Amino acid sequence: FLHLLAESLKKLGGPDWEILVQGEECFAKGVPVGMEQELPRTPQVFRKREKFRQLDITEFQPDMKNYSTAEMSSEQLEDHFRKDEQMGRMIPTTLAEAKQEFGEGAVLVAAMGAIQKPDNTIRPLHDGTHGINLNNKIRILDRLEVPGPEEVIELVAMAAESKESAFCLSADIAQAHRCVLVRKKDWGRLACRASTDSRTLWLNCVGTFG
Question: Looking at residues 16-23, what average pLDDT do you find?
Answer without folding.
Answer: 93
